[in-house]
Write a structure and sequence with these properties.
This protein is about 10% helix and about 35% strand. The chain is mainly beta. The chain has one domain. The termini are close together. The chain is globular and about 30 Å long. It has two helices and six strands, in the order βαβββαββ.
């Protein structure tokens, strides 16, 4: 993956999305633009075993709700985390995106 924003990637780029978010059983709380590809999950901790990863097209992320369009500007090596209803952007620590 090149150093790009999510918006630079085609809508059919593989996105790892947790099953709970895909089925709309859990709220989307974390999106990352990582070396291995983008991911969208419900929370930072999936140790409860309730969410399996699914591969969907990146375009599904923007279709989820119009308010997610800002994620097109999410740069490679960065994440967006929804905290108390507000999205915060941060940089992945070295080694987090491996």
């Amino acid at each position: 993956m090149t150093n790009s924003t999510l918006g630079d990637l085609p809508n059919n780029t593989a996105l790892v999305m947790c099953e709970g978010v895909f089925n709309r059983e859990r709220e989307l709380n974390y999106v990352a633009n990582e070396e291995d590809g983008p991911q969208a999950i419900c929370a930072l901790n999936h140790r409860d075993g309730k969410c399996e990863g699914m591969i969907v097209g990146l375009g599904h992320l923007y279709e989820w709700e119009p308010g997610l369009e800002f994620l097109r500007d999410l740069e490679f090596g960065h994440y967006a985390w929804k905290r108390e209803g507000t999205w915060e952007i941060g940089r992945l620590e070295q080694g987090d995106n491996k």
